[in-house]
Amino acid sequence: MHVVLLVLIAIAIVVLISYTGDLSSYETVASAKQKQGKFVNLIVKLDHSVPVDYDPVKDPNLLQFHVQDSLGGKIAVVYHNTMPTDMVKSERLVLKGRVQGDHFECSTIVMKCPSKYKDNPNSMQQQPVTISN
């Protein structure tokens, strides 16, 4: 009975340790470049000075673009999936992946959409609501 309990505790420890590898902090482009091949999260914005390269007819699962972090670090990004809707309108992007050579191999893109109240401060005021039955 004690042996079974010890084995279950050991398994629980291994599972907890495996999950800590997924708990990563946000990196800058410079620190991500220093961690070549390691999984990192980047908070960046799309670099509009370089065009987004996406041709869904030629290859719908290849998206290439450039990003810039808040410190001015820039990097090219390769994403092997379809382009997320409204990605070019997003204020910020959270990219999950790893730096491979001179580019960032992205596995997941999470977008922070622009606030619908940003341009019109009066829209924050409460509007009358009509409920119909």
Molecular structure report:
The protein starts with a helix and ends in a 21-residue tail after the last strand. A five-stranded mixed barrel has the order 2-4-5-7-6. The relative contact order is 0.15. The protein has two helices and seven strands, in the order αβαββββββ. Helices cover 19% and strands 32% of the residues. β6 and β7 form a beta hairpin. The chain has a domain of 90 residues: Beta Barrel (OB fold (Dihydrolipoamide Acetyltransferase, E2P)). It is α+β, with helices and mostly antiparallel strands. The C terminus is likely disordered. The longest helix is centred in the first third of the chain and has 19 residues.
Q: What is the CATH C level class of one domain, in words?
A: Mainly Beta
Q: Strand tally, please?
A: 7
What gross morphology would you assign? Answer: elongated
Radius of gyration: 21 Å
Based on secondary structure, the structural category is: alpha+beta
Largest sheet: 5 strands, mixed, barrel
Query: Biggest sheet: strands side by side, in what order?
Result: 2-4-5-7-6
Average pLDDT, to the nearest integer? 82
H/E element order: HEHEEEEEE
CATH topology (level 3) name of one domain: OB fold (Dihydrolipoamide Acetyltransferase, E2P)
The proportion of strand residues reads 25-35%
Distance from N terminus to C terminus (CA atoms, Å) equals 64 Å
Q: Percent helix among the residues?
A: 10-25%
Spell out the CATH superfamily of one domain.
Nucleic acid-binding proteins
Tell me the number of helical segments per DSSP (H or I, 4 or more residues long). 2
Residue stretches low in confidence (pLDDT < 50, at least 5 long) are 121-133
CATH architecture of one domain: Beta Barrel
